[in-house]
Write a structure and sequence with these properties.
By secondary structure, the chain is mainly α. The chain has three domains: about 5-85, no CATH class; about 90-190, DNA polymerase, domain 1, CATH 1.10.150; about 195-365, Intergrase catalytic core (hpI Integrase, Chain A, Orthogonal Bundle). The chain contains 16 helices and eight strands. The chain has helices at about 35-50, 60-65, 70-75, 90-100, 110-125, 135-150, 155-170, 200-210, 215-225, 230-235, 275-280, 310-320, 325-340, 345-350, 355-360, 370-415; strands at about 5, 10-15, 25-30, 240, 245-250, 265, 430, 435-440. It has a three-stranded antiparallel beta sheet with strand order 1-2-3, with helices on one face. Strand 4 and strand 5 form a beta hairpin. Helix 5 (about 110-125) packs across helix 7 (about 155-170) and helix 9 packs across helix 13 (about 325-340). Residues about 300-305 and about 410-440 have low confidence and may be disordered.
Length: about 450
Amino acid sequence: MASVINDPGGRRRIQFVGGDGARRAIRLGQLDRKSADAICRHVEALLGAKIGGQPIPKDSASWLSSIGDKLRDKLAAAGLVEPRAAVAVATLGALIAEYKSARTDVKAGTATNLDQTGKKMVEFFGEAKAVTALTEADAENFYRKLLEHDLATNTARRHAGRAKQYLAYAVRRRIITSNPFGAVKVATRGNPDRQEYVSVETVGKVLEACPSVEWRLIVALSRYAGLRCPSEHLALTWGDVLWDRNRFVVRSPKTEGYAGKSQRLVPIFPEVYPYLRDAFEAAEPGQVQVIARNRADGGQGNGQTTNWRTQMLRIVLRAGITPWPRLFHGMRAACQTDLANKFPAHVVCGWLGNSVAVANEHYLQTTEDHFAKAVQSGAKSGADGAQNQAQTGADAKRQERTNSNEVLEVQASRPLLSAPVSTRTLEQVTLWRFELQFLP
């Protein structure tokens, strides 16, 4: 427990016993009692967190980030907080550099994305911007600025999500107590404006315009097997192709961090088989990688690739087709849409390596075939309905004639009564197969 001690001349000091049992003091100098008591409460909170190995309470952490260097140095000298040198990352530029160097666990593509977002943050906020000075309003302005630069909404959200990672690291480093990007929407959503179904006819023309066997396989794997491009193409080896079982193993760098999601089995679809066979026959002796030529690593298999999108764009234009948005993703989405019309959702998602929710949000599309089938189904239902109605009308007329004949037959067989029959003596009259039965 800490207590405030009054010294001569209006000076105050806070005295407490540390976790090691040693008595320590923090000299505050001349200070009013109320302010000294407030500091004492935070000292007690810091001491409790230190001894118990618990996080600093939120209000004390907020207070700690707002105090001056002089008082903080005194707290550090008393062993209550880390020395100033350990929290030297105070500017945005230093924070970004430290976080990037600490993320040795990420792939090259993720590191590139983090670097791009870091540059945008420095460009907007300034390298010398104090991390503690960032506010939620600053984060919202950064996101709006991204949209003003004609970035797609999902692209802007991805940048905001990575900016959120940087500031989350600052929270863990106890430089700040809350993340300014906490309220910014970072989840990506399906964008119908950037979805266009790539039909079989269209991809057929693209395949004809491909310059090589390998490029035809790249397109076929994207459109007919739904592989993520280029990562899953580059990871494919001839050892992964199980010819005797009519399937192949797809290794997914994107999902390998999730349990049981590092690889999946995909059928060798009939549309894929001829292109896969042609590539196998054209492969060099001892070639391991299925895609060996269109990569920057010279076939070493380290996952590097040249700019496939640029070459794909040339192929599409050579085929005389207007390029669709998101060239490779569009083919993968069309593949999932087609398969979803033939197989259960969980089976298709297992083959493509995503979830039903993701498929519904980002992949599945409404095609012209869906409209055509709906119209055909509606026309058939209408014809059947008209036929049923006609048959029902004819049946009704036949039934009406039958009922009339039955009534006449019953009336003809009924005996004449000279007087009304009393309801007391006639308890039940049952008409059954044109016979009258009178029960007493």
